[in-house]
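Notes continue from the previous slide.

Worked example: a multi-chain complex. Inputs as given:
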Amino acid sequence: MSTVFIALQANEETRPIIDAIEIDNPQAVVNRQPAMVKIDAPGRLVVRRETIEEQLGRAYDLQELQINLITLSGNVDEDEDTLTLSWNE
Amino acid sequence: MDMKATKKKLGMKERYRVLTRDLGWEPGYQSKEAIFPYVRYEGIKVHDWDKWEDPFRLTMDAYWKYQAEKERKFYAIIDAHAQNNGHLNLTDARYLSALKIFLQAISPGEYAAHKGFARIGREFPGVGTQVACQMQAIDEIRHAQTQIHAMSNYNRYYDGFHAFADARDRIWYTSVARSFFDDAMSAGPFEFMIAIGFSFEYVLTNLLFVPFMSGAAYNGDMATVTFGFSAQSDEARHMTLGLECIKFMLEQDPDNLPIVQGWIDKWFWRGFRVLGLVSTMMDYMLPKRVMSWREAWEIYGVENGGALFRDLARYGIRPPKGWDDAEKAIDHMSHQFMLGLYQWSFGTAFHSWIPSDDDMAWLSAKYPDTFDRHYRPRWAHIKQLKAAGTPFKNYGLARLCQCCQLPCVFTEPGDPTLTCHRETVYKGEKYQFCSDGCKDIFEHEPEKYIQAWLPMPALFSELGGDVAAWMDWVSLRDGADNGDYDGSRDQRHFDEWRGLATSNL
Amino acid sequence: MQIDLRTVSIQPQRNAFDHLVRRFGDKPASRYQEGSYDIQAAENLHYRPTWDPDQQLYDAGITRIVMRDWYALKDPRQFYYSTYTLTRARQQDTTEANFAFVESRGLADRLAPELREAVLRLLVPLRHAAWGANQNNTFVCGYGFGTAFTQPCMYHAMDNLGIAQYLSRLGMMLGDVDALDAGKAAWLDGPAWQPLRRYVEDCMVVRDPFELFVAQNAALDGLLYPLVYARIVDGELSARGASAVAMLTQFMAEWFDETRKWVDAVLKAAAAESDHNREVLQGWMAHWNDRAAAALVPVVELVLGADADEAVAAQIAAFKARIHKTEISF
């Protein structure tokens, strides 16, 4: 199965986001590299606003991801609550 | 009446539709043909622009807000970097060669992308597509500027940066990158989109920005990491735009498939050649290396590109024609480039060098099938010549590929001992190529590529082969900007300054 | 590694990039200069555009304006991406607070129905005119020559889009999505809007970037913004009790005051270059100003009724006085 991924800058702001992604995507593998964290997942990866809010303890707009996003791979589908990356096979 | 109670609550997608697509209208006083004159001649058929899927639904209020936050972070870091002599935190100043190449060849490409996206942000008839392209247009000028600003402080202390604007238009190797962007900009709006939005952004820029920038962090260059990752956060939007656009073209009409496939074949190979130099930046120019070019290719080329083309197979798209040749070149290209750069280093506004014994041990571990067999012996020979006081320099005329404009230094896909060379005759003139991929591209559009400005022949025809006059013309300062890093001003300054910084003498 | 600054005495080898030293002398350059001057490719362009082989990829010859140096068209605000974005982000904060204020206090709901109707009738269709302005400025950025001239046009285009989006939000706040549909119907078929729509569509086929700059940013917006936002919203409608609406259009009023200084500086520098340029600019200005004035009269009538002619005439006089300062008379 093809891998999707999302990479974020490694900093204090992204720590809870990465935690949230790990919670929502048990198959995801987190790779820590200099200055960045790359999260790979087989076929599909979901980023959920609610989970991030639980980790952060405040309201969160998924578009805030833009600030610390480095790159991603897969078809993107975004609405208020989730950002989903997936490949069709 | 209580207006609030009756108001429809719009979801994000619907709200975005209202705030963008609904702004456009069917013209009544001018024809669509007159308003959008360039959208038909490439043969792409679009029946319904409303079927376009917006990738990221950024309205201007959110755009200003988030981009301003990125900008504040970026300039805070590069201000601090300049104020604190951040350049002395580098692992080694030879690393700066990679940044010099970046500023001379890649940053002008960002600017070209800015102009190109402004053009197609006007020329495409669909509002959703236009807005996405316009955001990319303004992002791309951001990238050009943040790169120039990040490197401005290096320019104050090190050679090779000062004439980037002259080098962009005149020096030989920048012609590789500029011909690539000129090629895309001189194409129609759909091909431009495949060239830059899809092939370059989606398939290839991860290779440039992600492992290399991570490498910059590893080598203490916070200015570059910052512009790199900050730019890349926009690229995530751009890549998604490229992917949405290709899916849109393929879904609109089955007749679009062969045209799109042809562009993918062309632009993959053009992009692979132009970004080939990144292989050398990663394998040779980072004093401390995060991963080899081969390893980066496995992740971002094989794995990610493979996933992408499996996804697009449902439309009948197959992987780019040059993919297998690219794969065969991966274990060779960084070495071939570095050997080429070293022998022509008199004519580059950056330094190259002979890899140290440690470097060579790393290279042979990362390239077990190729380095010791084909490239270590050549470096050993070059090292001997240097030790004997007769350093290896090639003042000969490099044979440049008529398409990608690189010197023909690559080997046959199946035989690393044989230099690859192709030629074709068009209207009585003979043209040279570095590969089948480049020859095919030429033969598909010969009238375009015979126009190419080739910098090396220009040197010999206009300046009579006078190398000193040529150096003046390209603003290359002999003995400072060029040549071997070993013994260079950059090396001397860096060692002195770092000595001052770390000792009390 | 921590660098001990006290012990370091390192000498910069140069002040600035060569092309900036040639232009501004041997001294450190500003970020505006670094990000604006000579960053467009200038020589040895490789291929002719397939979309128009008579043009070069960057072609100063596609406009009738002739400049020895297109970088003479400096932006007095010295906007490069960062300063532009930070400025707009600050204004966006204010605008957002204004929208929230109007919303939270139900000020929109308290507008008298006829006043609300007047606001919607005038402002909502203008979001399409702002989209037209976005198209035209994107064009000028794409095909104009020299970064000093073209980069502010990209920022301007994004501002035009932002304004179209603020007007859409205003329409939704005062009248729901249906108000946007009604506004679009008026833009497409309402008699009051047809001269303006024709103006905007006619601009979209002008392919001389400088003429388009004049037609959109000087002739049309130079009348439209003061008439709609100063004379009508801040003046007439506020006096009639719609000052909440003025809060929602504060951005547009401030934006016009800021950007007209840039527009004037560009016109002035181009006119000062040569008599030829001045004559071309005068011709364009006369032509497009007449058309813009005629197109705006029925729009202004929507709110001012019989006073529209007087209001437009007064604004034409003010506009001429403004443009005369750039040494362009028409």
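Summary box: Chain C has one domain: 80-324. Chain C has a mean pLDDT of 96.
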